[in-house]
Amino acid sequence: MSAIIKSESISRRKALSLMGLAAAFSAAAAPALLATSDAEAQTAGMERRQERRAGRHERRDERRTGRTERRDARRTGTTTGTATTPSAGTAK
């Protein structure tokens, strides 16, 4: 049950080798990380696609908001937003 723990020191040669590998890896990884940033559209087709996608996201958010408001109105009996249908029997 007794385990012998062997403490091993690192030589200068191994330490310098590890530091060199770390420097080489960081130098190689830096341009790759910069290349994956949010880039602007390159062509007119890509711009149109991004505009369509943004429009879809906006419409989807509007639908979700509308559904949430209608659901809340059904559950609580009050409206959180603007009324979509006029009240019946209140016109004079």
Please provide a written account of the structure:
The structure is a single chain. By secondary structure, the chain is mostly helical. The chain has a domain at 43-77. Helices cover 62% and strands 0% of the residues. The protein has 2 helices and no strands. It has helices at 12-35, 44-76. It starts with 11 loop residues before the first helix and ends in a 16-residue tail after the last helix. The model has no long low-confidence stretch (mean pLDDT 78).
Spell the H/E element sequence: HH
Decide which structural class fits the backbone: mainly alpha
pLDDT averaged residue by residue: 78
**Alpha-carbon distance between the two ends:** 95 Å
What topology emerges from the helices and strands here?
Elements: H1 12-35, H2 44-76
Highlighted features:
92 residues, mainly alpha, single chain, elongated, 2 helices
What's the short version?
This protein has 92 residues and is mostly helical.
